[in-house]
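Sanity check

After download, print the first record. It should look like this:
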Amino acid sequence: MGILDSLKAKFGPAKNKVSDLAQQHGDKIDQGLDKAGRLVDQKTKGKYSDKIRMGTDKAKDAVDRMSATEGESARKPRDTDGGNTPPPPPSAAS
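Expected structure tokens:
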């Protein structure tokens, strides 16, 4: 048995646990990612909005892939925006 086989054997139950948690709490995870993305976007004053949006979309897609059961595809494909356009940064005049 090679080292990769032994690692797969050890991490197999953890992968199943993560998959189960992603199935049960996928919506909450998505909401948390949205909230974190908005906070980071506000702190950077919108300078990296497109990169933040891409990162949150990729993280959500990863959660979707983890929560997909065997033989089932991920929940739904995301559009280019991901439905997650962060609010514009506060204006300097406010």
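If your output differs, re-run the checksum step. Summary of this record's structure: The mean pLDDT is 79.
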